[in-house]
Specification:
heterodimer; A: alpha/beta; five-stranded mixed beta sheet; 26% strand; globular; B: Cytochrome-c3 Hydrogenase, chain B; 17 helices
Chain lengths: 162, 412
């Protein structure tokens, strides 16, 4: 695998051999597809490495690639304030076992963004302190950003319980 | 902070005024539609007397499936939806989306277009900051500065209307360009606007900045430090109020920002008052940028404002009506929309609230696989419980105002 001249990918490939399954830097965005079992290890390295210092997890989201398997990709965008560079980390999550480790212990910003991914895609984050729906209400059935959730489907609006 | 439950104290007679009262925590629902907050958001506040013990912020009341809707139309059809994200500064959301699509298409827009985009986005930023500062005054019971702010915002929107054709939902930025060039007479009118807005900001400053009530309500309330901001990925004026000068216009210059002379104001304490001062100074800097854009646009002279790339541009109308090839091209462009090469891209701009980014995934077809908006409003709202633990309930109002959560963008 190649690092395409990006320090983030070079350090990742050197320090954690085998963690990255694919790398690319198309359109200038350094990207690594990592094993979901080693995600926390990877994020920890990116955060704590002296040369990388990715101190901000700016975005967490998911992509539904139906009908491909594994179906989901969870996507993390990181930014380093001291070094002014970015990296994108992706991890594949299968439909049968839609879960991945939570990054909240490393980056508190992941809290709400992971809740949103759970809400809209139905991917569970193991070890999340408070995995409630963020945008929709608890009585809502299904996860609307999944490609097999029909856009026209209507559900009754249920008010708050308290 | 008092203990949650006080141990019972001996009763020392009816006139023992020193005795601690036995209080229980009280849960108060604020919102989702509350007269003292602008924005549809619910706060579940646990109070000990007047102090906040716990705060749960519940968002989502304006969720209308922005991403789902974008993923079922063409790339062009998503642009009007981006207008409705942050309705104070629609151009900035248009811009972020179009920059991400252009990144996927590997398009380079003409120079004149880039200056126009910068000018429109700075006007939007001024409108957004005016709304934030004006509405904050209103919610602190000061009507006059709100009216100064709204007058300036009306003028800003008048000029956005001249430029874009609409006041609020401008739909100005297009993939590979802008809707049209600025109209005749715009630079003169805009220069008068800049002068008048400076006057209004001075009036605003006179009644607000050193006003004792305003300062007392803002200073040392809603304090957040630099490290907390970074851990929560907070950006924009909120991060800059803590002294960290991160501004994507400087850190990762897009468009022509590297050729523009402007300063990035920072605060020192990270309280609401610093956020107010940062916003006011940013408006002055934006006015400076608008002036530089006008000068540059006049210097450049007439020129193309759109790329001449047949993938994204419709052919000229005269040719559509008279030639077969252009007619077919127009038909396909309208019914199918542009096809964007397969791949993924993330592009971000410095919006009025912070980093507004779009992460797009394309499979090479005319319909996006994934449109993700990274909403600064939502992410900046997340540390709010930390900022308000132990504070007075009344401090929630200015803190919420200066976080400037915009429901449309936060809930999408």
């Amino acid at each position: 695998m190649e690092d395409f001249g990006h320090a983030s990918l070079r350090r990742l490939l050197a320090a954690l051999p085998g963690a990255a399954q694919e790398t690319h830097a198309r359109l200038g965005d350094a990207t690594a597809l990592v094993d979901r079992a080693r995600l926390i290890e990877v994020l920890q390295l990116l955060r704590d490495d002296r040369e990388l210092q990715f101190d901000m997890l700016t975005d967490v989201t998911a992509v539904d690639l139906l009908p491909r398997t594994p179906r989901f990709e969870v996507v993390y965008h990181l930014y380093s304030l001291p070094r002014n560079h970015r990296v994108r980390i992706k991890a594949r999550v299968p439909e049968e076992d839609p879960q991945i480790d939570s990054a909240v212990s490393l980056y508190p910003s992941a809290n709400w963004m992971e809740r949103e991914v759970w809400d809209l895609y139905g991917i569970r984050f193991r070890g999340h302190p408070d995995l409630r729906r963020l945008l929709l209400y608890e009585e809502f059935e299904g996860h609307p950003l999944r490609k097999d959730y029909p856009k026209e489907r209507r559900q009754p609006l249920v008010g708050p319980r308290n | 902070m008092a203990e949650p439950y006080f141990p019972s104290e001996p009763f020392r007679g009816e006139d023992d005024f020193e005795r601690d009262l036995h209080t229980q925590h009280q849960i108060v629902n604020m919102g989702p539609s509350h007269p003292a907050t602008h924005g549809t958001v619910k706060f579940l506040v646990e109070l000990d007397g007047e102090n906040i013990v716990n705060l749960d912020v519940q968002v989502g009341y304006l969720h209308r499936g922005f991403e789902k809707e974008c993923e079922s139309g063409t790339w062009y059809q998503a642009i009007p939806y981006t207008d409705r994200l942050n309705y104070n500064s629609a151009v900035l959301a248009n811009l972020a989306f179009c920059l991400a699509v252009e990144k996927l298409l590997e398009l380079e827009t003409p120079e004149r277009c880039q200056w126009l985009r910068v000018m429109a986005s700075e006007l939007s930023r001024i409108a957004d900051h005016l709304t934030r500062c004006g509405a904050a005054c209103l919610e602190l019971q000061a009507m006059t500065p709100f009216l100064y702010g709204i007058e300036a915002r009306e003028l800003t929107w008048d000029h956005l209307e001249m430029l874009c054709g609409a006041r609020v939902t401008s739909n100005f930025i297009r993939i590979g360009g802008v809707k049209h060039d600025m109209p005749a007479g715009f630079p003169e009118s805009c220069r008068a606007y800049v002068a008048r807005t400076r006057e209004l900001l001075r009036d605003f400053d006179d009644v607000v900045t050193s006003n004792r009530i305003f300062v007392d309500r803002l200073r040392d309330t809603g304090v957040i430090d630099r490290e907390t901001c970074i851990r929560y990925a907070v950006t924009g004026p909120m991060l800059r109020s803590t002294g960290e000068p991160l501004d994507l216009r400087k850190a990762e210059p897009y468009l022509v920002y590297d050729r523009i002379d402007f300063d990035v104001p920072v605060g020192s304490v990270g309280d609401n008052y610093d956020r107010y001062l940062v916003c006011v100074e940013e408006m002055h800097q934006s006015l400076r940028i608008v002036e530089q854009c006008l000068t540059q646009l006049e210097k450049l002279g007439p020129g193309p404002v759109n790329v001449l790339d047949p993938r994204v541009r419709w052919p000229a109308k005269g040719r559509v009506f008279n030639r077969m090839e252009e007619l077919i091209q127009q038909f396909k462009a309208v019914t199918e929309g542009p096809r964007v090469p397969a791949g993924e891209a993330y592009a971000a701009v410095e919006s009025a609230n912070g980093e507004l980014g779009f992460y797009l995934v394309s499979d090479g077809s005319a319909v996006p696989v994934k449109v993700r908006c990274r909403p600064p409003s939502l992410i900046n709202l997340a540390p709010m419980p930390d900022m308000l633990k132990g504070a007075y309930l009344a401090d929630l109002i200015p803190t919420f105002d200066f976080i400037n959560m915009v429901g449309g963008e936060c809930d999408r």
